[in-house]
User: Fold this.
Amino acid sequence: MKNLILTSPIPGELIALNKVKDPAFSSGAMGAGCGIVPSEGKVFAPFDAKVEVLFETKHAIGLTGTDGESILIHIGIDTLNGKPFHNLVNQGDTVKKGDLLLTFDIDEIKKAGYDVTTPYLVTNAFDYDEITIKNDAQVILAKSAQKDDEDTKNNNISENNAIDTNSKNLLSVD
Assistant:
């Protein structure tokens, strides 16, 4: 098997997946990954890919990369449908790393009482020994070959594997 290193598709803070406030995501049942607390309402392609799924409500997008990586980006938890979300791509489109895929209004989502934390999942996580997700300031080990399968399945490994790359210190993700 191989290792996968992904960049965050959304500017913001990376948090352990088990800290996402929705058990469908936090349990790891839908894949390994992390949560992103967005600082900007823009979703960028993390790699060259095909848009496999674009939810009609525009709050979630699924991509398959040229190397077979399959991801889901789900903007917010139990979020509003439609209005605060705008797509710049369509299902079936081919995109390049860094392309702007979706935009969303963080303030509008929050005013409606919804959590903007965005699950970022590798839906074919079992194809990889390790999955690392990073942004400019953080790195999260979303799946580790060092841990047993039960910890990986429950995504308990991410909690203690967030690193601040500027200071090289472990981040508290509690």
Notes: Confidence is low (pLDDT under 50) at residues 147-174. The two ends are 31 Å apart (CA to CA). Residues 7 and 147 are 22 Å apart (CA to CA). The first helix runs from residue 23 to 26.
